[in-house]
Description:
Chain B: InterPro entries: ABC_BtuC-like, ABC_TroCD. Chain A is of the alpha/beta class and 267 residues long.
Amino acid sequence: MTQIELATSNGTRMAETSDDAALAIRGMTVSYGQKPxxxxxxxxxxxxxxxxxxxxxxxxxxxxLKAALGVIKPLAGTATVFGQPVADARARIAYVPQRASVDWxxxxxxxxxVLMGLYRELGLLGRLRGAHKAKAMExxxxxxxxxxxxxxxxxxxxxxxxxxFLARALAQDADLYLLDEPFAxxxxxxEKAIIDVLQSLRADGKTVxxxxxxxxxxxxxxxxxxxxNTTRIAEGTVEDAFTPQTLQEAYGGRLATGQLGQTALxx
Amino acid sequence: xxxxxxxxxxxYNATLVTLGAMLLGIAAGVTGTFLFLRKRALVSDAISHATxxxxxxxxxxxxxxxxxxxxxxxxxxxxxxxxxxxLLCIGFLTRRTRLAEDAAIGAVLSVFFxxxxxxxxxxxTMSEGRQAGLEGFLLGSTAGMLYSDAVIIAVGGALxxxxxxxxxxxxxxxxxxxxxxxxxxxxxxRLDLIMMGLVMAITVVGLxxxxxxxxxxxxxxxxxxARFWSERVTGVLWVAGxxxxxxxxxxxxxxxxxxxxxxxPVIVLVLFVMFALSLLFAPARGALAAVLKHLSxxxxxxxxxxxxxxxxxxxxxxxxTLRLLQRSGLARADGVATTDGKARAAKALRDETRWxxxxxxxxxxxAATFYDGLTEIETVLTGDQIGELDRLIGAPMGVPA
Amino acid sequence: xxxxxxxxxxxPMLIGTLAAIxxxxxxxxxxxxxxxxIGDAISHVVLPGIVVAFLITGVVAAVPMMLGAAGAAxxxxxxxxxxxxxxxxxxxxxxxxxxxxxxxxxxxxxxxSDTSTVHLDVEHALFGxxxxxxxxxxxGWASLLDLEALAYLPVELPRxxxxxxxxxxxxxxxxxxxxxxxxxxxxxxxxxxxxxxLGFTLVIVAALAAVAAFDAVGSIIxxxxxxxxxxxxxxxxxxxxxxxxxxxxxxxxxxxxxxxxxGYGPLWFGADNxxxxxxxxxxxxxxxxxxxxxxxxxxxxxxxxxEAL
Lengths: 267, 401, 309
């Protein structure tokens, strides 16, 4: 039994009944070519929590998120959302992809991007009504972008692009928000705006999971962490799982120990 | 007859054309490799289609000047000029507008070809144009070729090949790693220009043999074929040259034996056969090898995950995992481990624990970066180091290695 | 004037226009998806498809040939994808291998089989025969109301009209998912849009347009209309809907002006024979693109391109 405890003793392991989890990933392995980028990962995100997925570059953070959503096909493993297979729970999921993954020269306006978040509601040919536009405007307001509604998306700064993506996710009116590097390369004002929105979502009982790379803000922004480096290193509350020990395991020699000590709680 | 042709005993003209086609094929294979590695393979398609207006205009000018208009040199010069113009258009559209290169290539290709067709139909109405035979430039034809034309093709092929050989070193440096090449003092824009110049030269020399619609195959298929056989730039260059040379040689010969067949399509099909065989059967990168490798990789992943689940007493979520475990005699149908399975599972878990310990210790940080779930720890650490890990873990292992 | 125009020029002009629009509509999405050259590839493989259909059925009939061509387009798309994935070859090179090989196969089959009795040759495939699609039974504008004369309209006209209808319907019905998946494929997938099948359907619809247009106007127009009107339109506007509208306008202009210039242009210069209408239509579309590239209000890039994945 010693061995088993050793293998699982990092972070407090939640009761693994996936039925009451907002997101439950089991045995997920994803590979590009002949080397797994993510290996046999289990993840349990409790409802109403705010989780940071952290790990070094190339540790499989975004890959895990995309595989859970079915955007890339995993080699093995399953993901459930609120106890349902992901395919049946799409209406309850909002997703914010990496900003750099799309062509911002695409011929469309800011408000049209936000309206894309209403696609499930509108369907193929459903009429776009004033109420939809009002909702999109309201989402833009929540991220402070209401004045940019008719702007061409190519004219936005990086931070503004990120806010528009967040507004689109808000329009999806979901229960689980999955964000891929929402703070990457954005200005301080945008970072503040985004975290405010995320925290208000959480206050409304929504669940938030974000791929994150700035360790110094983890304790301020999130209440749970998921450390990954190909496999799961640790998972749990910030107090339990975000420790010098787990960070050393996740980042190895890639972070100076001093930095680890300063960043992590309890150092 | 075929044997005569293959051994170059089919008359002086045919021999010259065959040699020219072979030299051209080698040059095209090598130059095409540079294009392919620069991810600009289809630029050559635009270049070749853009030659057509030049052919037409050159013919009209030569007739207007009192010639018969069919001088191969004159037509080649015209085609080179309009191909160059096409290349400039692509550059203008991609640099000065928001259009991507693929759109620019497609636009230049179709518009220049359209303009060329307008000229061809105009030439057909000229009294001199009825037997101009310019349509032969579309698909290539070596039938009834003049001695002087055969000489031009042979000499042209040799010259292009010589130029390719002369520039091979800087061009392969740029193709392999443009940024490094630039930092080591090579003039990358100028070398790109030289590369395009070579592509143009190949197109122009090849027009008469392969035709402008299919000449692009001579530049694209050899490098793609060669890519299956080598991971190194030099290797790809060699194989591509050989593939191109063989195709030029065999294609020109076949078509000399059967004059009704247009040369271009024959050469392309010879190329395609070599490509298809490589795609399917190449040992390391071929499709068959890739599929087999993927299946065995998938199997390794599932078995490893299944063993870890067994060792930790967790349920096995996927049917495929269970089936693979069963088939390997590691688990029974109800998901309970066999004796063999228990031993393997214990070892898998022990290794996983060792990896975890390695990750948590700074002195093993470098080794820990090799972790991907499948790499055996014995392949990364020595026996002594593993012993040290076991000591740190401190638990009695008691599992046979 | 009316009599001659309706009999000789009206139907080819209409057919050219319908073909141009049918190709330009899906071309807009192919352009934005960086798949502009799929149109090039499709138009090259139509020839082998038609030849194989002819060899199997032994007749030159529209339906088997359209099926053959559509089949060839599917084979080409699957082959490009297979080469790309199995061989890890970049898409441009995979396309180059596929369409040259299939085109070469088509030409050789054509040369080897006895097609001397039928109107089937490489040049026809490239240039089409737009000029020959005349309406002999028309006696003037009044014929447009004359059911008997209408019955003898060139069959290409209603066929292209039907295909255009299908293409337009597809564009209209799937506008939202097409736009969404073209802009942000990952997000579209997360919403449950099956982007793979949708992209494949787009290519098949493009192939349908190419096949129908090819028969009437040849492959030059097909490639030119897939790319030039949408590319020019992209430089005129920053809204997708407006871009599609511009592309329809440009396609129409190219077809009408191209046909007029080809038929009457040489006369203005004192020559007495018309030049290829297909070639001239492509030329006009190129001129329009040229103007848009120099004067288009939205010709410069604005946003950063997507990172290569």
